[in-house]
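In the previous chapter we treated chains in isolation. Here, by contrast, the input contains two separate entities that must be folded as one system, with a combined length of 702 residues.
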Amino acid sequence: MNASVEKAINHQQGTDVSRDVTLVEAVNMALARAMENDDNVVVLGEDIATNGGVFRATVGLKERFGYKRVMDTPLAETLIAGTAVGMATQGLRPVAEFQFMGFIYAGLEQIISHAARMRNRTRGRLHCPLVYRAPFGGGIHAPEHHSESTEALFAHIPGLRVVIPSSPQRAYGLLLAAIRNPDPVIFLEPKRIYRAVTQTVKDNGDALPLDTCFTLREGDDVTLISWGASVMETLLAADRLEEQGVSAEVIDVATISPLDRETLLCSVAKTGRAVIVHEACRNGGFGAEVAASIAEGAFLDLQAPVVRVTGYDTIMPYYRNEANYLPKTEDIVQAVEEVIAL
Amino acid sequence: MKQHHDFTVVSARYLDTAGKPLDTLPEMASDTPRLRDAYRNMVLTRTLDQKIIALQRTGKCGTYPSVLGHEVIGTAIGQCLAHHDVFVPYYRDQATQLMRGVSIVNMLLYWGGDERGSAGWERCPEDLPISVPIATQCCHAVGIAAAMRVRDEKRAVVVTLGDGATSKGDFLESINLAGAWHLPVVFVVANNQWAISTPRGLQTGSETIAQKAISGGLPGVVVDGNDYFAVSDAVDHALERAHGGKGASVIEAVTYRLGDHTTADDATRYRGAEELKTAWEQDGIKRLQSYLHSVGQWDADQEKQLQAHCKEMVEKAVHRYLETAPEPPTAMVDYLFDTVPTALQGQREKLARIGQGGAV
């Protein structure tokens, strides 16, 4: 057994142990915990068993739970998506990994036309308790097709939950919640922050609530709304703004669909200003839904227009230019300065 | 030079078009109650089919794909499947669904625009609903078979698809996985020669569809899809393999789509009357009936009774279907998730007001 597998298994086998882990290690912890607690949980995907996943999210699982529950699939994304549907109708709780979000599109027909609809089209006779995991977003100097953020595609589909953790603790708690949820969840992991920070995570099997925004920082002057890796820059911007005497509230949306509008509207009612930050393109991005919800639900509370800080409406550039594409801390600070000045 | 695979694909046929045995019949031929049951199911399927088309033509049902020409294949599958196996259908599987206990009312509800058509299904609650997106059901079938393998169950899955569906990756990816994972699944391709207007010859350059099985490491056979004995025998054997842990198989059952693709289609635009006339000569229902007559297991009286009985069953179900009130509009929210998310509660309230006929 190689050292990383051994380390992962030692990590996985502690009970109620608190550990300092990265986001990707928290994903691994949650998978192991879910598999330990429920024999129906199985994982499948490309290179996930013996290799432990290209990001090592599934390392040690095959050694611990066996190849029957940890399945290397052929290199076929349609098949991965559809096989998980079939398994789920049998009461398994498959967690299927797409190696990168850029390769999930071959599975869209299965996800949209079957996973999202099975409960509805059988009036509850069958349902799909499954999770589709995919690393997403830019910033790691990856090749073409490996850096996009197309979460809005999934948020548009009725019957899907779209969950995006932005810290090790939320990765652990939200992934457990996603696996235990009786309906399909798209679980998008911001790979730029897979190893950016470590956080103490208690491996006690406690899930976090889905369909709820997390207020990471309270403030009075402006509400900063983000998800995924951009939450990091948003928090840094809030620090910077504090130095300038501006009190920013920071909300991690976490479950972008179904959207917890209540938390967003209450915050905007308090602060009167909203700045939305996401890495995806602006046009038709999920920020548009957030902005429209605020316009519909908190218009009279607004002291300034809702502003979006996003990626450009371009094809994700190759990595030499990706830093110029991604929203930066100073972009967020500047946007806030502009709405405060109004 | 090393030769890797020298494949042979055999075609099976037991009855000629007049229902006369061409060869020694398989053992099941002595099971006359089984043969009569099969014949009854075929006649019921055809009676129902004609009625649904009539309902569609008079505005009482939505667009509907006729099963005409598929009755033998579907019935044979329905008989071979064990109760605890799982059936994964596409949209021309009315004959199998009837045998799996899907009620005629449910079928009418489904084609009549009501989601409850795929609800209930008490006799075989694990069977999947009809798959409309072509070939996608193949991936579900291997997923179900993989779940059986995870749990070490001795069950199997039968999935059906048309000839057009064999052009899609879902089918090819699924036979590939079924071979690699040695899964208990049977793929039955109902090759009816036409994918809407595209003839079989334009789908693939391969001589048979069955030989595609070989690329996935599976056995593939061709059978006459209008020959009850040939289809039954092939499905029986394939299921025996699957149940016995010997893996998956592909069966290409050759038939002809005697009707339009659906009630929204007009096949006279792309195929000739002569071809259709020739295809009718192969009709498998007639063939089995002639066989049963020839061995003294069927007569004109029984036929008359059966026809009347099928008509009555269908009429009763149609009556119940037409009497069924639509679901309340809130149903469109209520089955989206296990519980209605907060985000959807406002929309649900609006739909509830529509349901009460009140102001929105």
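Chain A has a mean pLDDT of 96. The domain at 3-202 of chain A is CATH 3.40.50.970 (Rossmann fold). Compare these points with the single-chain example from earlier in the chapter.
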